[in-house]
Amino acid sequence: MTHNDHITEGAERGDLARLVQPELHIDEFRSKLGRDEDVCVLSFKVSGKEPALDLVSFIEKGYSWVIDADVSSGEMDDGDFLVFVEIERDRELAENIISLMLDTMNLTSQDIKEWKFRYHKDRQYHEITEENIARIVPSTADEYRKKYGPKAIDDVKTAAGLPVESRAPKNEYTESIRIAAGIR
Questions:
Q1: C or N terminus of the chain, fewer CB within 10 Å?
Q2: What is the value of pTM for the model shown?
C-alpha cells in the first residue's frame, strides 16, 4: 500500500490544508476501548467540526491497526476540535504512526518536517521520526508496564478516587509504618 492509496477514499489531496495543527500528541489521553498498555492514543487538533469528521473518516477507512477514531464531543475554548485515534500498541507502532502521518500530510499539504510530537505528560516536543517515536513511546504492553507500572497506575486510581488493590512491599520500613498506623 502506498501513501497515496488512501486519497481516493473520499478525501482529496489538500482538502485539510491549514486546518490541522502540526502537533501530534501521543498517549496524552486514555484509551476508551482498551487498556492503555495495549492501545496507543494519538490526538490531533483540527479547526472545525466538519474537517475533524473528514479526518476521522479518512483514518477509519485506511488502516487495519486503527481500533477507533473519533472527534471530541465539544469544541475547545479556541473553537478547534480534537481528533482521537486509538491504535494497537505493538512492535510496528512507530512505523504505523509514520505511515498515518505521511498519508495525513497528503490531506494537509504539509511536510512532516513541519510537525512535532509530544509524548504523554512530557512538555517537550520532538521531531516526528520513526526513530524518535520508537525511542520515546512504549511500543508493547510490556514496555508500557515497565514505564508506567503498578505505582503509576495506583497514582491514577488514587487521583480518581478509585480503590487501589496493590500493597506496599513488606520490609522493615513499611512494617514500621504499619505498626505506627495501627495496621497489621
A1: C
A2: 0.76
